[in-house]
Model the fold of this input.
Amino acid sequence: GAAITVSACGKTYADGTRALHPVDLQVKAGETLVLLGPSGCGKTTLLRLIAGLETPDAGGRILFDGAEVTALPIEKRNVGMVFQSYALFPNMSVIDNVAYGLRVRGAAKAERRARAGAVLEMMRIGQLAERRIDQLSGGQRQRVALARALAVRPRVILLDEPLTALDAALREHLRSEIDALLKRLAITAIYVTHDQAEALALGDRIVVMKNGGIAQVGTPREVYFQP
Ligand code: ADP
Ligand code: ADP
Done:
């Protein structure tokens, strides 16, 4: 995974909303960094800046492994993204959803199916390959969304409240699977949540956000067990 540098990145939306004050942040290669904070504090905005779905206000810069990506759109950054709402194609099969990003990148059909199939096995949903998305449960959909994000072998995976739409038991189960997966792949991951338990369980480091800024950055221990 790539190391990420966020330098003086703020965001003011077109309607004048100041969603993020200029922030600095270093993400280490291979770590899972959690952005934690209440609704409206700017977590998603910061994630979207790193993804390339939004551009920062003037002066803000984002670097992957030291190379500037500030002006690059999401397709050029080699990031995978997972959303709370899955954002899958409902009428397409599971395997076609997972292979979609590979098709966009011009991979041949046989390679697409082999790679998508391997990632589905990794997510333990190989048996669902030919199902349509609208025939799946929420937990199965989120596994497909994760598989789709990983299939392109991204340098960075960005997860925006991926478990929030699921019920409590499933949330915990999938959380520990995601934890194991991110560690095994050693991919740089940024995980947005408002849930403290999730942040503690998943984060190598936690960024505590408040009112459009960063209040604190540290390991779970540093953030929660200060004397
Ligand atoms: P969080 O992810 O922590 O809930 P967001 O980054 O989504 O926070 O939002 C931060 C602030 O920016 C909020 O006040 C939100 O209403 C506002 N905001 C988010 N997206 C937009 C947008 N596209 N246009 C205007 N304001 C926005
Ligand atoms: P290869 O062509 O290198 O043999 P495969 O498609 O057979 O690649 O996948 C090799 C293994 O890597 C599989 O177990 C696959 O699930 C796993 N894998 C899939 N996506 C990723 C990823 N983003 N990073 C690392 N490993 C991945």
Notes: Residues 168-185 form the longest helix (18 residues).
